[in-house]
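REQUEST FORM: STRUCTURE PREDICTION
Request ID: SP-0412
Submitted by: Lab K.M.
Chain count: 1
Length (residues): 248
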Amino acid sequence: MSEAFRLDGKRAFVTGANTGIGQAIAVSLADAGAHVIAAGRSSCADTVVKIKALGGNGEACLIDLSDPAKAVGVLESVGDLDILVNNAGIIRRADSVDYSEADWDDVMDVNLKAVFMMCQTFARAAIARDTGGRIVNIASLLSFQGGIRVPAYTASKHGVAGLTKLFANEWSAHGINVNAVAPGYIATNNTTALRDDPKRSAEILSRIPAGRWGDPADIAGAVTFLCAPASAYVTGSVLNVDGGWLAR
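STATUS: Completed
RESULT:
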């Protein structure tokens, strides 16, 4: 592999790395040479097993982003980092007229407040060391669209896209590139019900020019690129990895 796509000697912290997209990102970064701290609310031991099976280096870490202040403490405890990937997120569904304040607060704490505080903590340390770094936030198609019955999720993912651009404006001069990836419909546990519904699955596939559901590896490849030297002049971008969904 070209050195422009290698991450040897880098240390990466990936949230929500116990399964799905987060796990694929952690494995991909490790495969490119990074030492990966796979962090999640539940055990990431399986992710570490997959990393080591490829000959990579990784460790598991428990983190609960529903308490952003404690999550920041975990991030600070792991030592110097070169890469931060904010992948973890939650969703709560209800009609907007019935949406509870508790659901709103829960989603915003994990999806937006924690992202802000994790990025802030990472950047403070990187600026103090004068080492630069890479941040990749996981956005969503609902960073651009409204969706239905997910008001807090939509607001949070619009916020993630906005914060990504703001951070890039403030921190790129310090050598910290900040970007986001917006996944389309990806084949994970979260979309099992949709994929198992023949009518809904057909409706979704008919809108995707690529004609297939995405794979977590599709997202992982994009994130790895944004963490690698090859993307040195890419910052403030929200990269859609959606099989063409938004272009339709």
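NOTES: The helical segments are 20-31, 45-53, 68-77, 101-129, 151-171, 192-196, 198-207, 216-227.
Reviewed by: T.R.
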